[in-house]
Write a structure and sequence with these properties.
The protein starts with 5 loop residues before the first helix and ends in a 10-residue tail after the last helix. A three-stranded antiparallel beta sheet has the order 3-4-5, with no helix packed on it. The chain has a two-stranded antiparallel sheet with strand order 1-2. With 350 residues, the protein is mainly α. 56% of the residues lie in helices and 5% in strands. It has helices at residues 6-22, 27-36, 42-62, 64-67, 76-80, 84-93, 109-128, 155-167, 173-196, 200-204, 234-247, 271-282, 293-308, 311-318, 323-329, 331-340; strands at residues 96-98, 104-106, 211-212, 217-221, 227-231.
């Protein structure tokens, strides 16, 4: 039986997880997830499912009318009867609350904003289909988030980081022993992330058949399952070829034959492992910046924008569906370019 693609495996796993999460929720919740499937990724639907579970459990445990019913008995009419203040009270509740297993959960403004966005999508789905005529979630203002500085590596830090990945310099003795076995793979992963700006999920999902050295490109699945080609330069090609030469000597575990990057267990490397190796190596060059794979993506986007000045190109290469998302992340750089324009036009010749 041929190995399923990483993207397909993740979709199947998330589909099963989604079914578990909504099993005890009202039947119309399943209608919602079936309805939004063509426009959303399986990861997005999982996030919505977690948020909706919290919402329904909150209603059941904190509203006397809802508490009289089983979760599955809560109707759309019941939800339509809620007022904006009820939604606001829910958002206040999720700042700090205890789950059924007794664990304390807390959410910052970003997470609260996402929970309201989930509710808005949920209500909007039934409102647009005229299953309800009132949408209280739409009347609740989105939390205003404070703009944060984009954390990224400077050019000298990138060069130093790759040197450390190659040499193992500044690692602990225990880390250095392990480093000897994985340094070629680790350098290939770090160079690929820094040299293309792909997401960590796109990196671990890479198959041997996805790498095209003739055209210097890799085939990846973007958010939402869209297939895309991302091109790489000479430094990335060299690192990938070096690892591929080593990879050919490894006999992968069954079911992982086509995975490009393998773990020490000879299975497809997972997201957590890549996150850990990024943290391990970046701590050798900076302790003041909390660098994650996503920050390496920001580092690449910054470098590309500085070199090209083309925000639309950056958006396309990074796979942003909306250029405004890109512009928000690189606003400071756009301001630098606007400032530089003041010296470009001379009204009188010297």
């Amino acid at each position: 039986m041929p190995e399923q693609s990483y993207h397909k495996q993740e979709d199947l796993k998330n589909t099963k997880k989604l079914r578990e999460l909504i099993a005890d929720l009202p039947p119309y919740v399943r209608d919602f997830f079936r309805g939004i499937e063509p426009q959303t990724s399986s990861r997005t639907r999982i996030a919505y499912a977690y948020d909706l579970r919290v919402f329904f459990n909150y209603l059941h445990g904190n509203n006397s009318e809802f508490g009289k019913k089983e979760l599955k008995e809560i109707s759309l009419s019941d939800l339509e009867a809620l007022q904006p203040v009820d939604i606001e009270e829910y958002l206040d509740y999720v700042k700090v609350y205890s789950s059924k297993n007794g664990l304390e959960n807390s959410n910052g403004q970003t997470a609260i904003k996402r929970k309201l966005a989930s509710l808005r999508s949920f209500y909007k789905y039934f409102y647009m289909r005229e299953s309800i005529t009132y949408n209280p979630a739409e009347l609740v203002a989105m939390p205003k988030l404070h703009e944060k500085n984009i954390i990224r590596l400077d050019a000298d830090e990138v060069a130093e980081l790759l040197d450390h990945v190659e040499s193992g310099q500044s690692l602990t003795k225990k880390q250095q022993d392990f480093h000897e076995k994985t340094k070629v793979r680790d350098l290939a992963i770090m160079t690929l992330l820094l040299g293309t700006g792909i997401r960590v999920s796109e990196c671990v999902g890479l198959n041997l058949s996805d790498v095209d050295f003739r055209n210097s490109g890799i085939s990846i699945y973007r958010k939402g399952g869209k297939e895309s080609i991302v091109y790489f330069g000479d430094e990335v090609e060299e690192a990938l070829r070096d690892y591929l030469a080593e990879r050919k000597k490894i006999v992968p575990a069954e079911g992982h034959e086509n995975a490009f990057f393998l773990s020490s267990q000879k299975k497809r490397i997972n997201v957590r492992s890549v996150e850990n190796l990024v943290k391990k190596y970046t701590r050798t060059v900076t302790t003041s910046k909390n660098i994650t794979p996503h920050k390496l993506r920001s580092t690449y986007g910054t470098s590309l924008y500085r070199e090209t000045g083309d925000i639309y190109l950056v958006a396309d290469v990074l796979g942003h569906s909306d250029v405004n998302t890109t512009r928000k992340h690189y606003a400071a750089l756009e301001d630098e370019k606007r400032r530089s324009a003041r010296d470009k036009v001379h009204l009188r010749k010297d």
